[in-house]
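From: lab user (bench 3)
To: helpdesk
Subject: output format question, protein + uridine-5'-diphosphate-glucuronic acid

Hello, I'm new to running complex predictions and I'm not sure whether the block I got back is the full result or only part of it. Here's what I submitted:
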Amino acid sequence: MKLSIIGSGYVGTTIAACFADLGHDVVNVDIDEDVVEALNDGRSPIHEPGLDELIEEHAGDRLRATTDYDAVLDTDVTFLALTTPSDDDGHIDLSIMEAATKSLGSTLAEKDSDHLVVTKSTVVPTTTEEVITPILEEHSGKTAGEDFDVGMNPEFLREGSAVSDFLDPDKVVLGSNTSRGAATMRAVFDPLLERAPDAALVETGIREAEMIKYANNAFLAAKISLANDLANICKEYGVDSKEVLDAIGLDSRIGSAFLGAGVGWGGSCFPKDVAAIVAAARDVGYDPAMLEATMEVNDRQPVRMLDILRDHVDPDGARVAVLGLAFKPGTDDVRNSRAIPLVDALVDAGADVVGYDPVATANFREKFPDIDYADSAAAALDGADAALVVTDWDEFAALDDEFDAMSEAVVVDGRRIVTRRDGIVYESLV
Ligand SMILES: NC(=O)C1=CN([C@@H]2O[C@H](COP(=O)(O)OP(=O)(O)OC[C@H]3O[C@@H](n4cnc5c(N)ncnc54)[C@H](O)[C@@H]3O)[C@@H](O)[C@H]2O)C=CC1
Ligand SMILES: O=C(O)[C@H]1O[C@H](OP(=O)(O)OP(=O)(O)OC[C@H]2O[C@@H](n3ccc(=O)[nH]c3=O)[C@H](O)[C@@H]2O)[C@H](O)[C@@H](O)[C@@H]1O
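Helpdesk reply: Thanks, we reran it on our side. This is the complete output you should expect:
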């Protein structure tokens, strides 16, 4: 089939390359000329394992990119893969989505044949029907359900494993309110379901599909926050939280995934998505107590980490090494990284901060240009009075003699990855 994808960021680029690999003809439409040029040159505009290879293989053949929305006219289906950030009070900010939808609607005015528009972005329930569809109708002069269909297909891929997550998913969720739209969406996903026969197919309504995405992310974030709450209790009792969480994870009703206690969850999605569904719930008069607690526990973890540091070292004037600036290992993405509130608080307390990350230093420097940065964990530790381990990069688990170069070897481990050893004052957060 012929597919167009509006927005070529983490999601748009990944799904475009994967759909091309599955045999579809794909065109990406993005306003960023650098992104378009990279794709047409056969290069990935984002860093994701396996993506370069797919783009190199299909660019110029089944995969191309353009800044021109008219490319949509030669396709059967359009996915909207635009950013949906939070505004200051946590509500979803649809301005980018709305601008792109207007451009798409104006373009569809010129189209003679059926078309399906699928929301791929994470949007709160009713957005596709009550925001996107009216914009498409107004700008195209056409009627949804008659001249074109709309659908919703949430995405569950993770940064760092985006290609394999997309091509080998646990489930594919297709939301539709018309049988023609549902049939077209199934045809788009048939090659994927053939390649990944174990994937479950969930066919549902549009607002159910929208809510499944938030429920998925909110559940995972809540699971981590519950693990953190339990681990904090363990810490107060001198109980080994890892042994406890590993043991409960063996219960198949609980499962071991996303029970990793520590300094909490960050990234471009959990924080904004939990905040957005909490704000949306309040808008309709519901007080989402569990999800509010989920955010509160997450906000408290960095504060607890600094309290533990203060038990050993006064941050004022101390040199503090922050190991790990990315929001999780395997990425250079620092959006909502737990290192951000930690570094903010350390700087406020008068600490002399030195940060180190294997790949995320450049991105972190944009936010914190005035702290020091080291080229290695060893260099960050050299002469430091304390170290905070913030991201669970494998290389931090291997640190050993490097701690000997510290001025005072106080290590607060926010991810339970450093092995307790002689010669350091070791405190784990959980
Ligand atoms: N990043 C992730 O791992 C995941 C993200 N999501 C959701 O997918 C959606 C997209 O997220 P990302 O791919 O991370 O966003 P992103 O910020 O990486 O990419 C968005 C792209 O849209 C382009 N764009 C902006 N305005 C445009 C316009 N008017 N017309 C055409 N292109 C335009 C930008 O230049 C950019 O390349 C969000 O709703 C997000 O919550 C869902 C699952 C995973
Ligand atoms: O909606 C999205 O954008 C995506 O959000 C997350 O993916 P991602 O943010 O890439 O990363 P995760 O691996 O989920 O990690 C999120 C955060 O949770 C933290 N985490 C994860 C697992 C754990 O056990 N403990 C823990 O603290 C990580 O350190 C990280 O800060 C979801 O896992 C994806 O399914 C979803 O598609």
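A quick orientation on your result: The chain has two domains: 2-203, 205-430. Let us know if anything else is unclear.
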